[in-house]
């Protein structure tokens, strides 16, 4: 029992990341009909937003402290971040400590503008081209974005720790009345899960309960009719692209403490999140979320030793195996709409 | 000639001349000159040109003719490499049985994957092939370690049985790959003044294979079977309505292109008897997609051009560093020189992937037909210029 709970918890954080990326992919596909292979790169850029902010906050100036010397006997240089000198040492240190959560605010405008530029500058010209062309051009864009990041940040992963308050682990067992120290779960992963639940809920609420979201949903169902009603649907779809980019970026920002950002993390996640989208059903938002969590949890279950001894290597291939089975038996995916990319 | 039309025969002849004279053509700059680093006429690189050319030709038979975009083709290359290395380990160091086995095994593998994946089309097909390739990659890394030797990669050892050959060579080392006794690594060097030309047995083996593969591709393109594949690309529903089942045709194309990939993998292992799982990763599949698109999908010569182009830049572009650039622009005033070098810096050396990505995007956006279409446009421009001179009254038919 406790092992099962533990695996479900383990699957949740990865599943949250899959669900968030797949949600963005589906938003773009459902609104604009574009298969965006650069979505993984947006996730990666989000992660690097966190890196950038923590670097900016750590910018410091050097002062020479004559009372102390370093090991060579020279007067010691002490680095003080500017933040600490402006806000005082304690507040400053706290701000630096909370760099990752702060980058949420920092990354939203960046990601939305990247999304706008991408849609207006590139994707717009590909609406009428075949899906293969869209895949290829966004694949090229993903390579370019990845190499640009590599140029500025280097090829090595950059550790970006979570705030001190979340660094420990949480004893789930004690909460559920099972023996303590059996189900231990890092706080940050809980935060990540809660965060992604909030984002997913936010996106759904936005689409469901606002006039803007209603128009977008109408556009997803029948673009032409909405256009005939005198609504500039293209403009709204551009905004949705920006929103999807922001969702991917936020997923990346919060994932930075779990997995140190490196330039190819986007590609690693891209393949899996495409599988997630296809399993959930192209164009279905609930399907993307459901499939994301389902595959994340399945992945962590299959890495249990009991299951691995039954089917060796199953943990490596479970996601692809599920995808193949689902694609062959349910062509539309789990919750795909009728008539969307069905052939 | 050989059942080809005159145009195709000329094309084949051009490719044959280019492939056989490559050691000369790719070595235009004398040794020791400033431009010598642009020479690509060394065996290792020439072999790679040709092997990836074969790989891309095969990919093009699937993608160019049927429009099915496979994102998992590297899996067949990897399977081909593994089977060739196993042949070297178990049978002998002769490359012919190894290459034959790798073509057969990857063909069977393609039959299996194609049978399942081709039930869907469009993006679903891409995802299915991607999923299969990633599965094989992950399995090769983990559970199949007894066959693939996991992360280390499959290598020859002194303890291998090699029933028809010898386990240990006379010198006590691991024997090298050979073609009926001729070592593939042996190279004839020709010194001509300042030039040094290298003729490598392995390269010529690959070149002959390329010509065979290219000839077969021409025949497929011009055959009724090829027409059928094009029909499937342009409208699969209509093919269905005429009472034909497209599945056997697409499956045949898939298997053929898988066998091409297996041939490439077998040759790769023959040149360097080593096989690693990273050859099967999806980025490797992406590379062959890049090559085909860059050269021109659906054309005969395009994939070979694209493969040569990418491999050339991978090896030559990545060698250019800041010092070389400073050398080139040393005539300019210092400030301008530093500015130009600074601007170019991200695109050269380790950053050549960036150049490749930008180039690829430009090709997809502006030249959907790839380098071949670019060449045709330039040719048309010249031809129109000539036509204008002779007859100024004709208006362009827009």
From TrEMBL, chain A:
Q: Which GO terms describe its cellular component?
A: plasma membrane
Protein's membrane topology: Multi-pass membrane protein
> Keyword Transmembrane, does the record have it?
yes
Alphabetical list of InterPro entries matching this protein: ABC_transp_permease, BCAA_transport_permease
- In which compartments does the protein localize? Cell membrane
Residues passing through the membrane, by range = 16-35, 42-61, 98-123, 190-216, 237-258, 270-298, 310-328
> Coiled coil located at which positions?
none
**Gene Ontology molecular function, alphabetical:** transmembrane transporter activity
Q: What is its main location?
A: membrane
Give the UniProt keywords, A-Z: Amino-acid transport, Cell membrane, Membrane, Transmembrane, Transmembrane helix, Transport
Q: Which CDD domains has this protein been placed in?
A: TM_PBP1_LivH_like (cd06582)
Q: Which domain of life is it from?
A: Bacteria
**What processes does the entry annotate via GO biological process terms?**
amino acid transport
Q: Which PANTHER family match?
A: ABC TRANSPORTER ATP-BINDING PROTEIN, BRANCHED-CHAIN AMINO ACID TRANSPORT SYSTEM PERMEASE PROTEIN LIVH
UniProt lists the family membership as follows: Belongs to the binding-protein-dependent transport system permease family. LivHM subfamily.
Q: What is this protein called?
A: Amino acid/amide ABC transporter membrane protein 1, HAAT family (TC 3.A.1.4.-)
- Organism encoding this protein: Thalassovita taeanensis
From TrEMBL, chain B:
For this UniProt entry, the molecular function terms from Gene Ontology, in alphabetical order, are:
branched-chain amino acid transmembrane transporter activity
The membrane topology noted for this protein in its Swiss-Prot or TrEMBL record is: Multi-pass membrane protein
Q: Where in the cell is it found?
A: Cell membrane
Q: What is its main location?
A: membrane
Q: Which GO terms describe its cellular component?
A: plasma membrane
TM annotation in the entry? 45-63, 94-116, 123-144, 201-221, 248-268, 288-313, 325-348, 354-374
Q: Which UniProt keywords apply?
A: Cell membrane, Membrane, Transmembrane, Transmembrane helix
Domain of life where this protein originates: Bacteria
InterPro entries noted in UniProt: ABC_transp_permease, LivM-like
Q: What is this protein called?
A: Amino acid/amide ABC transporter membrane protein 2, HAAT family
């Amino acid at each position: 029992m406790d092992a099962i709970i533990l695996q479900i918890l383990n699957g949740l954080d990865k599943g949250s990341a899959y669900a968030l990326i797949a949600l963005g992919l589906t938003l773009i596909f459902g609104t604009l009909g574009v298969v965006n292979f650069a979505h993984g790169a947006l996730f990666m850029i989000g992660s690097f937003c966190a890196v950038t902010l923590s670097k900016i906050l750590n910018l410091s100036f050097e002062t020479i402290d004559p009372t102390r010397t370093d090991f060579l006997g020279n007067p010691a240089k002490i680095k003080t971040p500017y933040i600490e000198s402006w806000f005082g040492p304690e507040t400053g240190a706290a701000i630096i400590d909370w760099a990752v959560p702060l980058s949420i605010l920092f990354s939203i405008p960046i990601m939305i503008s990247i999304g706008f530029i991408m849609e207006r500058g590139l994707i717009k010209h590909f609406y009428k081209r075949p899906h293969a062309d869209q895949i290829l051009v966004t694949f090229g864009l993903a390579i370019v974005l990845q190499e640009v990041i590599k140029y500025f940040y280097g090829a090595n992963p950059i550790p970006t720790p979570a705030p001190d308050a979340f660094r420990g682990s949480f004893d789930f067992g004690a909460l559920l009345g099972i023996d303590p120290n059996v189900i231990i779960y890092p706080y940050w992963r809980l935060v990540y899960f809660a965060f992604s639940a909030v984002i997913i809920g936010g996106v759904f609420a936005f689409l469901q309960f606002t006039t803007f979201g209603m128009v977008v949903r109408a556009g997803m169902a029948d673009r032409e009719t909405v256009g005939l009603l005198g609504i500039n649907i293209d403009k709204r779809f551009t905004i949705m692209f920006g929103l999807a980019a922001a969702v991917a970026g936020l997923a990346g920002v919060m994932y930075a403490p779990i997995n140190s950002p490196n330039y190819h993390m986007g590609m690693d996640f891209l393949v899996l999140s495409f599988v997630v989208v296809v399993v959930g059903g192209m164009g279905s938002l609930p399907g993307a979320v459901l499939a994301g969590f389902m595959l994340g949890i399945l992945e962590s279950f299959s890495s249990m030793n009991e299951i691995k001894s039954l089917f060796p290597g199953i943990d490596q291939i479970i996601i692809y195996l599920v995808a193949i089975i689902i694609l062959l038996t349910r062509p539309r995916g789990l919750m795909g709409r009728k008539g969307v990319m069905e052939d | 000639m050989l059942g080809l039309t005159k145009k195709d025969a000329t094309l084949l002849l051009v490719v044959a001349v280019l492939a056989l004279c490559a050691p000369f053509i790719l070595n235009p700059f004398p040794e020791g000159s400033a431009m010598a680093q642009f020479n690509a006429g060394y065996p290792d690189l020439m072999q790679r040109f040709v092997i990836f050319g074969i790989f891309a030709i095969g990919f093009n038979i699937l993608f160019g003719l049927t429009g099915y975009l496979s994102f998992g083709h590297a899996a067949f290359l990897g399977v081909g490499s593994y089977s060739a290395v196993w042949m070297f380990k178990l049978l002998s160091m002769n490359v012919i049985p190894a290459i034959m086995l790798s073509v057969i095994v990857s063909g069977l593998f393609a039959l299996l994957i194609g049978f399942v994946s081709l039930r869907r089309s469009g993006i679903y097909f891409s995802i299915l092939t991607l999923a299969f390739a990633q599965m094989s990659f992950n399995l090769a890394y983990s559970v199949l370690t007894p066959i693939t030797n996991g992360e280390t990669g499959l290598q020859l050892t002194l303890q291998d049985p090699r029933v028809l050959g010898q386990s240990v060579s006379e010198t006590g080392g691991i024997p090298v790959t050979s073609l009926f006794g001729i070592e593939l690594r042996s190279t004839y060097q020709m010194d001509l003044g300042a030039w040094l030309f290298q003729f490598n047995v392995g390269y010529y083996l690959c070149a002959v294979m390329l010509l065979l593969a290219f000839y077969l591709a021409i025949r497929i393109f011009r055959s009724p079977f090829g027409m059928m594949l094009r029909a499937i690309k342009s409208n699969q529903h209509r093919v269905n309505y005429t009472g034909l089942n497209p599945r056997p045709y697409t499956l045949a194309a898939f298997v053929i292109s898988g066998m091409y990939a297996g041939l490439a993998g077998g040759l790769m292992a023959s040149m360097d008897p080593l096989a690693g799982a990273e050859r099967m990763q999806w980025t490797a599949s992406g590379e062959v997609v890049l090559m085909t698109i860059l050269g021109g999908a659906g054309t005969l010569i395009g994939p070979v051009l694209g493969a040569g182009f990418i491999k050339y830049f991978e090896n030559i572009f990545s060698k250019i560093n800041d010092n070389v650039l400073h050398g080139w622009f040393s005539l300019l005033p210092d400030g301008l020189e530093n500015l130009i070098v600074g601007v170019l810096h991200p695109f050269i050396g380790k950053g050549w992937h960036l150049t490749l990505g930008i180039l690829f995007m430009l090709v997809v956006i502006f030249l959907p037909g790839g380098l071949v279409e670019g060449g045709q446009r330039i040719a048309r421009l010249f031809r129109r210029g000539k036509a204008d001179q002779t007859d100024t009254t004709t208006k362009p038919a827009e």
